[in-house]
Design a protein that fits this description.
By secondary structure, the protein is mainly alpha-helical. It has one domain (2-57). The protein has three helices and no strands.
C-alpha cells in the first residue's frame, strides 16, 4: 500500500512521469481538497463503527 502511495506521488510530481501519464502537478489547495475528502471517508467509517458497536451493546 505504501508503494502504491509513492507511485501515485511520482506520477503526479516527477516531470518525466508527468509527460508519460499526461498529468500536472497539484496545487496546495488541490492537495488539501484531496486530503479532506480522504479524511471524510475515514471519519464516516469510524462513526459507522461506533454506531454499530453501540447498537450491539444494547
Amino acid at each position: 500500500m505504501l508503494a502504491a502511495f509513492f507511485a501515485q506521488l511520482a506520477v503526479i510530481d516527477v516531470p518525466v512521469l508527468e509527460r508519460i501519464f499526461r498529468t500536472v502537478p497539484l496545487t496546495v489547495v488541490k492537495w488539501g481538497e484531496g486530503g479532506l475528502s480522504a479524511l471524510s471517508v475515514v471519519v464516516a467509517v469510524e462513526i459507522d463503527k461506533a454506531v454499530r458497536r453501540r447498537r450491539k451493546l444494547k
